[in-house]
Design brief:
- This protein has 136 residues and is mostly beta strands.
- The chain has one domain.
- The chain has one helix and 13 strands; from the N terminus they run E-E-E-E-E-E-E-E-E-E-E-E-E-H.
Amino acid sequence: MNAKNRRIRDKYTGTPTIVGTDVQFNGTLSGNAPVIVLGQFEGECHIEERSLTVEVGGVWKGQIEAASVVINGTVEGDVQAHEKLELGHQAKVTGNVSAAFVAIAEGAVVEGDIKMTGQPREPLHFVEKRGAALEE
């Protein structure tokens, strides 16, 4: 597989910052480390060179701006990914999303506009297979 086309999760490097399942955070998040949200976050983020992931059960309320964004949980607000945006099969976004490249799993919901800022091409649609064994 071409490394350029690998999923965002496959490219994690460094130690991520994790907002745990029983954590509620309010404020502004900025930096250059990957961030994983399992709990609830209310505010905005600016992650210049890394990714933000909202996992299943995670809730983000506010604006997101990051190099890459993976959404498997719930986001209420606009999302701007400078590189890639990946919407998992349980993703629910209420707001506008924009990214150079968008991948949307079967079952993902976006209640807003989707804007592709990169080279003209269609969003990639896929069926999520990673979590299927865990959900059974």
